[in-house]
Model the fold of this input.
Amino acid sequence: MKKKILSAFLALSMTLGLCACDNTNNNSGTGGNTGGNGGNTGGDKLKIGVIQYAAHPSLDNCYEGIKQGLEESEYKDKYTIDFQNGQNSGENCDQYANNMVAQGYDLIFAIATPAAISAYAAAKDTDIPVIFCAVSEPVAAGLATSLDAGLETCNGTADILNLEEQLNLILACQPDAKKIGVLYTTTEANSVAHLKKFKEICSAKGVEVVESGVSGSADIPQAAADLCSKVDCINNFTDNNVVNSLSVVLEKANAAGIPVYGSEVEQVKNGCIASMSIDYVALGKKTAEMAVKVLGGTKCSALPVTQVSDVTPVVNTEVLAKFGIDLPEAYKDAEKVTTNS
Done:
């Protein structure tokens, strides 16, 4: 019996040690209490985990919106947050999710599809709800039965790209564009679905989509360079791998003398020429609103997936000037930004 107790104690010590090492960025939810892997000092406060797949502005804005939404809710001062950045690694997300589930967190937010898949895989046999944010194709990713209903313990918000409006913007800026390049990650369900839809929309307007699939960030420099030599411009989706390497894509595109169109405002601020942009802070707030309902007793399966598809035109005036493109009259009221503004 003593040997069994000693073995159990050693196993628990190793688990807590691993959790402490993995806790890359703990944030207090409210009231100065630190949530975290093995470090919750919030008493009876709710322990809320946040797993963000990668650090780039779109996903950062999602997290900011989640925090704002929680602070404006009835749970203000009643929770602590353990925030973990997956650093563009599914394995990291798996590890963080397993740690949070092992410690019985009250709810896990998962920002972006890979993080959501990790969180749901870890929590699906428990009663811990997973609320995802910025998952464009939740059904294809296995995170919802349909857009009308989530799973028993999983639901969230979908960022639906308005690809038709995006194409209209591209053709307004470049009326003679015949070939649009798309760089995407072959294993990301969102990107595969976006590509299929975009090709259908472009085909109807006589525009060819030239695609280039990558499996990881190491493939992007060569794939981007090759793609830039074949097209009139590049259009980005919300592909996490590609957005995380946006500076590389822009470098190759600028060298080839072609513009890159982004999927949201932060990409435009970082050097893309324009976008029909989704507000990711607003998306994060809607995600928090769903979480509040679930914490209040509503089942995830009783709620529809919250879809956000409203877009606002954004243009980078510096990049427009660099390519000698006049702001189209139809977009004269677009939000105007400059690089890194």
Observations:
- The chain is about 40% helix and 20% strand.
- The two ends are 65 Å apart (CA to CA).
